[in-house]
Amino acid sequence: PFFVLLSQQFSREELEGLCDTATAIRRLDRHRDGREFLLAILRGHRVMNLFAQPSTRTAQSFIAAADKLGATSSLVSDMRTSSFAKGESVADSVRTLSSFFDTIVVRHPDDEFATQAAWALYRSQRSIPVISAGSGKSQHVTQALLDFYTLRYSFYEHGGVDGKQIAIVGDVARNRAARSLALILTKFRPGGVHFVSPQNFQPDDELLGYLRRHEITVEVSHSLENTLRERGRDLDAIYMTRLQKEWDGGTAGQPKADAKTSELGAGDDYVLRTEFRLLVREDCVIMHPLPRINELPDSWEEHPGFVVWRQVRNGMWMRAALFATIHGAAEEIRARAKRLDL
Ligand code: CP
């Protein structure tokens, strides 16, 4: 079985292979014969998308990715319509779903849900791939994969991700996309990772320790304006994130007495204000996993490095590459793209 649960599970070679497969799928999809070829890759496969938290991009791009490869998809996005609402266990639920589906994609507020699902299937007679589409506050692996793909594309002619200075801004403590991206960067040699966050939402010691053990130069600061004034022109990429108010009170929907709340957080201090454009280079890559609230104003869309909508499109290509890789079709896809000279 192929379980996609942690962004650090991928080697550098596997990450580069996924990017190459995503590019091959993107190019084949533009070619009539290529499109026909892709539609046969997962014909007859069925993908279950089980989303216990809201999603626009991730859910729909998994469905679009399956479509590109000829698979069909189901989406459960309201857990009240499933037997979870009657108290059915994770193990019984996913074992039931594995009778009808070939891959399960799960998003859940519990950090451990996807892992529990994977273990339950691993121990069962019929183990099928499980892909995390967002696990609590800890991991958003496929977002990190598409973000890495976008960074690699942006730096393709400038030495790749190695040596690049990358700022990750906002509610890092509760943003699983930021956390997963930082973990993926350990497979490369970025020049530095600069976290800029409110003090109470700064990256935890576990994440910082992991990065430092992998010899990544890490800095943590609390003022976006000061960081940009001091080193804005050294930055090769800025990854913005929003304040994750849905976690106020602890685990979404399950308040905890010691929970941090957004009221202690950011205000407008972590907004990439339009006038900050003078503090960064024109080739600095501007990213955001979306959804955004006010932290990345529309005015940045005119900046040459703004790649947010490319990130969204890359989500579909990368998720298709992941399906293809899981089901053993990646090499065939890359070979076909090469044969068609794409
Ligand atoms: N980036 C992301 O996960 O967006 P959605 O919550 O809309 O899926």
Automatic annotation (TrEMBL):
<dbReference type="InterPro" id="IPR036901">
    <property type="entry name" value="Asp/Orn_carbamoylTrfase_sf"/>
</dbReference>
<dbReference type="GO" id="GO:0016743">
    <property type="term" value="F:carboxyl- or carbamoyltransferase activity"/>
</dbReference>
<dbReference type="GO" id="GO:0016597">
    <property type="term" value="F:amino acid binding"/>
</dbReference>
<dbReference type="GO" id="GO:0044205">
    <property type="term" value="P:'de novo' UMP biosynthetic process"/>
</dbReference>
<feature type="domain" description="Aspartate/ornithine carbamoyltransferase carbamoyl-P binding">
    <location>
        <begin position="7"/>
        <end position="152"/>
    </location>
</feature>
<dbReference type="Pfam" id="PF02729">
    <property type="entry name" value="OTCace_N"/>
</dbReference>
<dbReference type="InterPro" id="IPR006132">
    <property type="entry name" value="Asp/Orn_carbamoyltranf_P-bd"/>
</dbReference>
<comment type="similarity">
    <text>Belongs to the aspartate/ornithine carbamoyltransferase superfamily.</text>
</comment>
<feature type="domain" description="Aspartate/ornithine carbamoyltransferase Asp/Orn-binding">
    <location>
        <begin position="162"/>
        <end position="325"/>
    </location>
</feature>
<keyword id="KW-0808">Transferase</keyword>
<dbReference type="InterPro" id="IPR006130">
    <property type="entry name" value="Asp/Orn_carbamoylTrfase"/>
</dbReference>
<dbReference type="InterPro" id="IPR006131">
    <property type="entry name" value="Asp_carbamoyltransf_Asp/Orn-bd"/>
</dbReference>
<protein>
    <submittedName>
        <fullName>Aspartate carbamoyltransferase catalytic subunit</fullName>
    </submittedName>
</protein>
<dbReference type="GO" id="GO:0006520">
    <property type="term" value="P:amino acid metabolic process"/>
</dbReference>
<dbReference type="Pfam" id="PF00185">
    <property type="entry name" value="OTCace"/>
</dbReference>
